[in-house]
Amino acid sequence: MPGGDMKTPLLADSDSDAPGPLPRLPGNPVVGIIGSGDYSRSLAIRLVASGFGVVVGSRNPQRIASGLFPEGVQLRSQREAVDGADRVVFAALYPEHYHTLAGLRDGLAGKVLVDVSNATRLNSGEPSHAERLAELFPQSRVVKGFNVISAWALQAGAHDGSRQVLICSDCCDSKAAVVQLVRRLGFSPVDLGGLAASRAIEEAPLHLFPPWGGPVLVTLLLFLFFYGYNFLRRVLLPYLDHGENNFYQLPLQTVNQTLPAVALVTLALVYLPGLVAAVLQLGRGTKYERFPGWLDRWLCRRKQLGLLSFLCAGAHAVYSMCLTLRRAAGYTLLNAAYRQVKAGVENSWVEQQVWRSDLYLSCGILGLGVLTLLAITSLPSVGNALNWREFTFVQSGLGYAALTLSIMHTLFFGWDFAFSSLAYPYFLPPVFLLALILPCIVLVGRVLLALPCLTFRLAKIRRGWESSRHRRCPRDQEPIEEAPPQNFGDV
Amino acid sequence: MPGGDMKTPLLADSDSDAPGPLPRLPGNPVVGIIGSGDYSRSLAIRLVASGFGVVVGSRNPQRIASGLFPEGVQLRSQREAVDGADRVVFAALYPEHYHTLAGLRDGLAGKVLVDVSNATRLNSGEPSHAERLAELFPQSRVVKGFNVISAWALQAGAHDGSRQVLICSDCCDSKAAVVQLVRRLGFSPVDLGGLAASRAIEEAPLHLFPPWGGPVLVTLLLFLFFYGYNFLRRVLLPYLDHGENNFYQLPLQTVNQTLPAVALVTLALVYLPGLVAAVLQLGRGTKYERFPGWLDRWLCRRKQLGLLSFLCAGAHAVYSMCLTLRRAAGYTLLNAAYRQVKAGVENSWVEQQVWRSDLYLSCGILGLGVLTLLAITSLPSVGNALNWREFTFVQSGLGYAALTLSIMHTLFFGWDFAFSSLAYPYFLPPVFLLALILPCIVLVGRVLLALPCLTFRLAKIRRGWESSRHRRCPRDQEPIEEAPPQNFGDV
Amino acid sequence: MPGGDMKTPLLADSDSDAPGPLPRLPGNPVVGIIGSGDYSRSLAIRLVASGFGVVVGSRNPQRIASGLFPEGVQLRSQREAVDGADRVVFAALYPEHYHTLAGLRDGLAGKVLVDVSNATRLNSGEPSHAERLAELFPQSRVVKGFNVISAWALQAGAHDGSRQVLICSDCCDSKAAVVQLVRRLGFSPVDLGGLAASRAIEEAPLHLFPPWGGPVLVTLLLFLFFYGYNFLRRVLLPYLDHGENNFYQLPLQTVNQTLPAVALVTLALVYLPGLVAAVLQLGRGTKYERFPGWLDRWLCRRKQLGLLSFLCAGAHAVYSMCLTLRRAAGYTLLNAAYRQVKAGVENSWVEQQVWRSDLYLSCGILGLGVLTLLAITSLPSVGNALNWREFTFVQSGLGYAALTLSIMHTLFFGWDFAFSSLAYPYFLPPVFLLALILPCIVLVGRVLLALPCLTFRLAKIRRGWESSRHRRCPRDQEPIEEAPPQNFGDV
C-alpha cells in the first residue's frame, strides 16, 4: 500500500540541482555500503534517490559529519551495516584496507559483495582487486562493478540509462541481482563474463582513447614528414640557395600544403588494409586462416584513421578559404595589378588556368562533402540506426568516391606542373606527387579486384569455399548459413 | 557458489581484439545452434562470451575445422544439439535446407526455434522463411530474430545495447525468452508483434535508406532543372547568340547558382505539406478524416527534405567562400584595376552595391546558422533528449525563421535586378525569381493561417471539435483528453 | 501455444505508415483506458501494436466514430472497462473531470491507475493532478507516467527504447508493473521516486530548454554590449565627429567585430567558476561546505556556455571568410591598386603585416578546430562513450588549449596596435582589449593554481582532507574511498 513520507521531489528545482533524499519504503530492498568516504556518499545519494534503503557502515559512525549523507541513510557500524543489508553490500573503501573487513566474513557469507575500486596502474600484471576480495571472502559472491562511474556522475548524472556500467562475476545469480540494481539506478549494465574480466574492468577508467593511439601517431608522423619536406623544398633550400625569404609562409601556407597530403595518405591507409586482406585471402584460397596481428589491428583502426583524414581535410579547407584574407594575398594582388598596368596588358585572362582552378576547387569541395557524410555516419547514434547494407554503402561506396574525388582534386591541382622542370628544384618532386603514390595504388588495386574473375573467386572464398589444398577430406553438401554478402571494404 | 574456470578476460587486450571463450558455468542455460557455417560461428562466439553454454549441431561434426569454434562450444550432431539445448535453438542454416531438419521435429517440440535468415528479394510476395518454418514445425514456437545483426557485429560489436534486434513471434513466452537472451548478449530488443511481421523483418536488412528515396529523387530533379536552366540562360544561349565563351563557369559558378535555388525550393517543400494539411482540415471541418496517401507520405518525408536542403545550403556556402580563390576572380580583379587606372577613377565606391552585398551575405550566414541548429536537432541522440515542446520550437519556429532569412537573402541578392530588362535575356527570368515562387507562397500561407480567426478555428478542430456536417448525433460533454497544443508545423 | 490471428504486419509498408491492429492473444494482459479522446486513441494504437489487449471505457461508447480506434480494441462503458482491465488502467481524460470517476472507486480498488495529464502552468504551487487522483482513489495505486510522450510519438514513434518516460509512484510494485509496460511499448522508463515528484513530472513537458535560459541571456547581453560599443566607437562617434560614413559596416563588419569578443568572454566564463570553486576550497580548507547557490548554478551551466561560445566562434569564422566576398572589399582593393600605381610603388610588401596576419589566422583556425572537438564530445551519444578520464582530458585539457589559442589569436590580431594612440579614439580602447581582460585573468589564475604547493594542497582537500579548523575531533585513520583524481576543470 502506498505510504511513506515523500517530501522532496527528485527533479531539479530552481535553487538546487542535487536530488533530495527519500526515506525507505517498506518493501524496498536495503543495500549496505561499507566505507563512508566520498564515493560511498555519492552511491548513497543515488541509491536513496532511486528508492532503495541504504545503511552505511563505518568504523566510527559518530565521527561522520551530519548532513554529509542524505536523509534516510542509516549510519551504523560495519557489522550492523552488513547485517542490515538484504543482499547486496558495496565495498566502498580503499583496496589496501580490504583485509580490515576480515571480521565480517561470516556476516558477508552468502551476500553479494560489490567491488567498486579502480586499478592504480595499467598492465601491472597483479591479480585484480576483485580477485583478491574473492580470495578473502570465499563464502560471498564477489561482483565487480560501478568503478567506471565517477562520484560526480552518480550524484548529478542523468537517470536515462545511457551510461554503461561494466559488470563481471563468477556467480550468475549475484550478477543478475546487480544488473537489476544497475537498471533501477538508471544506468545501462554490460555483462562481461566471469571474474577473470575484473582486471580489464578495473583498468578501463585509466584508458585514454586506446584505439586512437596508433592512428594519431601515424598522422602526426605523416604531418612532420610532409611539413619538413615542404619546409626544405620551399623555404630553407631557396633561402640557402639564393636568399629568397619565404619564412612568412611557415605559419599558414606551409601548413596548408602539408594538411592535404596528410589527409590523402591517411584516407588511402583506410582502404589499403581491406585490399591487403582480400589479396591474402585470394592468395591463401581460404578465409579461415587468421590474418597477421598487424593487419588485424590495422583493420580495427580504420574508423579512427578515417576520422583523422576528415579532420585534416576539413582543416585544409578552412586554411584554403582563409588564403585570401591574408595580407600577403593582398600585397601580391596589388603588385600584380601594378605590373599589369605598367605592362599595358588589358586582359590577363588565361583560360587554362581558369579551368584548372575551377576544376580542382570543385573536386575538392565535392570530396570534402562526401567525407563529411562519412564522418556523420561515424557518430554512434547515427551509425547504430543504419543496417549493415546501408553502413557498407556509406563506408565503402562513398568512401571510395571520396578517395577518387580527392585524387582528382590533386591531379587537377597539379595539372601539367609535374612535367615541367620547375617542379623539381634540388631534385625534390612536388608534394602532391608524393602524396598521390599510395592513393593511386589503392584505387588501382580496387579496380583490379573488381575484375569479374577475381571478384567471383573472392566472393566464393568469403562464402566459405576453400581451395583444394585446405580441404582435409571430401565434404558433402554442408549447408552453410548465408552470411550477408560482404563488400571489399568490409572484410 | 562461484566456480568454473574463467581463464581469458573478455575485454580487448593489446594483441587481440577478439574475445576469448569461456566454458559453461553450471546454471547457465545451454543454447543450441543448428548449422556450422559462418553465422553459426559468430553467434557461438557471442553466446559463449556472454556466459551461455553452446552446443552446435552439424551433419558432419568431425569435418568442422578445429579452432574454428571457440573453446567451450560442443560440436555434436544435429539431433544431439537439439536435445542438449535447454530451450532456445537457433536455425542457422540456409532456408532452402529447412526441410532437411524434418527428422528433428519431435526433438524440437516445445522448444523455441529462432529463425535468423534474411529475405533474398524485396517485395516478392511469398510467405516469409519464419512462416514456412512455423508450418514445418507446428509444435515448436518459432521466433524471428537476429537477422538484422551481421556476423561481424556479432563477433566484434559493442556490448552496449545500442544495436537493435527486431523480434516477432506468435508465442509471447518464447518471445520474452528471446528478448531476455538478446539483452544478455548486449543488444536492444524491439518487439514487433506476431509472426505476420516476419516478412518485413526479413526484408529490413535489404533496405537501403528507404525513407530517403523520394526526397533524394526530388532534390536531384530540382538540381538538374536549375542547372539546365542556368546552363541555357548563361552559357549556351549567349554562346550561340554572340559567341560569348562562359563554359569555364560550368564546374563551379553554375553549380553555385544552382545549389541555392535547390536549397530554397526544398526548404519550402518541408513546410508546404503542413500548410496543405491545415487547409484540408479547415476545409473539411474535422481532423478525423485521413489525409490523401501522397500527403501522408510527404508529411513523413519532411525530415529528409530538410536535411537535403541543409546539405545544399551548406555546399552553396562553401562554394561561395571559394569564389575568391579562383583564378577567374583574380583575373577579373586585375582587369578591373587596369580599367580603373586607365579611366583615372580614384574612388570606385558604390554605396548601394556595398549595402546590397553586406546585407545578402549577412542574411545568408544567419540563415545557414539557423539551418545548422535544425540539422543538429535531427541527430538521433540530440532529438531524443528534447521534449515535444522544445522539438516543435526548433523544427517549426526556427524552421520558419530559416525560411524567412533565406528568402531575405535571395531578395537582397536580387535587389532591383528583376526590374531591369537585362535580367530577362531570351525572355528567361533570373533563377532567383523562379526559386522564390514556392517559398513565398509558403510564407504568405503561413502568415494567413496566423490570422486570429483561422488560428482559433484550426486549434478547435485539432482539439477534436467537428463542424456540424460531421456530427452524426448530438454529443453531450464528452471529456476529451487534452492533447498537447500543436503547432502548425507539427500536424 | 501459438495461436491468434496475426493479419497485419507492424512495419510500415509503402502505402501506410500507421501500424495496423492485432487482436488480443490469450495470455496477453488487458489494459484499460478511461476516456476516448485523442490521447486515448494513440495509447490504444501503441498498446495493441505491442500485443496487449485494450478495453476503452467511455461514457457514451456508441457515439465513438467507427474506425477511430484500431481493430481489436473493445469499446465499453467506463465501469466495464475498469472491470475488464487486468491490473493497469490509464486515466486518459481531463484532470478537471477526475471527480466524475468517483463511482468507479470500488472497481478501481487494488488496480494501478496511471495518470497521464500534463500541468497547465509552471510553478503554480498547487498539488499535482496525480496527488489529487491519489486522494480521490485511496484504494488504488496511482502511478504518474506517459505524460511526456505526445500522441504523435505514441502513434508513429520508433519502438527503439530511446524515448524516456518519467514515472513516479508511492507503491513500488505498481511502479514496477508500469515500468515493464513501458519497456514492452518500446520506451525507456526513468524512475523518479515517490508521488511527490509528480508535480515536476507534470511540468516537464512545459519546459523550453530550461538549462539554456541563463547562458543565452548572458550571451545576448554580451553581444548587445559589444555591438553597441563597436557601433559607438567605429560608426556613430566618427560620424558625429567628422561626418565619416561607416554605416555600411553595420550588417556584417560590426557583427564580425562583436562575435569574437562574445565568444572569448563566454569561453572564459566556462572556466572561471572552476577557478572560483578551487579558490573557495583552498580558502575554506575543506570540500564539504556547499558552494553558494549562484556558483552551483554557474558550474552546472558550463556546458551550455561552452556551446554558445563555439556557436559564436563558428559564426565569426564564417563571417570572416565572407569578408573578401563583399563589394566593399573589392572597391577597397581597386582603390588601393589605383593609389599604388599613381604613387609608382612597385612592391607594397610589409613583412610585419604579413607575419601578423598569417599568425593570427593560424591561431584562430587552430582554436576553432579545438573548440569543434569540444563541441563534438558534447553530443549525447559521443559523450556517453567516453570514460571519465577521457572526458576530463577533452573538456579540461583541450578546453584550456582552446582558450590559450583564442587569446593568442586576439593578441596577434592586436599586435602593437594597443600601444598606438590611434587605438583610443574618444578615449575608448579597442574591443579586443576589453575582450581579453577576463580570459587572461582565467589563464593566469589557472597557471597560478598549477603551482606545486597549491596543486598539492587542493588535491589533498579533494581527497577528503580537512584543515584543522574543520575537524571537530581527532580522527584515526578513517579509510576513505579513493575518488577518481579530479582535474581543476571538473569540480
Task: Describe the protein.
- 3 copies of one chain form a homotrimer.
- Chain A has helices spanning about 40-50, 80-85, 105-110, 130-135, 150-155, 170-185, 200-205, 215-240, 255-285, 295-300, 300-320, 325-345, 350-375, 380-385, 390-415, 430-450, 450-460; strands at about 30-35, 55-60, 75, 90, 110-115, 140-145, 165-170, 190.
- In chain A, strands 3-2-1-4-5-6-7-8 form an 8-stranded mixed β-sheet, with helices on both faces.
- In chain A, α3 (about 105-110) links the parallel β4 (about 90) and β5.
- The first copy, chain A, is of the alpha/beta class.
- Chains A and B meet through β7, β8, α7, α10 and α11 of A and α1, α5, α11 and α12 of B.
The number of distinct helices of chain A, counting runs of at least 4 residues, comes to: 17
- How much helix is in the residues of chain A? 40-55%
Query: How would you name the oligomeric state of the polypeptide chains in this document?
Result: homotrimer
Gross geometry of chain A: elongated
Total strands of chain A: 8
Read across the widest sheet of chain A, the strand sequence of neighbours is 3-2-1-4-5-6-7-8
**Gyration radius over CA of chain A:** 32 Å
Cα separation of the termini of chain A: 58 Å
Largest chain interface and its two residue counts?
Answer: A-B, 83 and 92 residues
Question: What order do the helices and strands of chain A follow?
Answer: EHEEHEHEHEHEHEHHHHHHHHHHH
Largest sheet of chain A: 8 strands, mixed
Mean pLDDT of chain A: 83
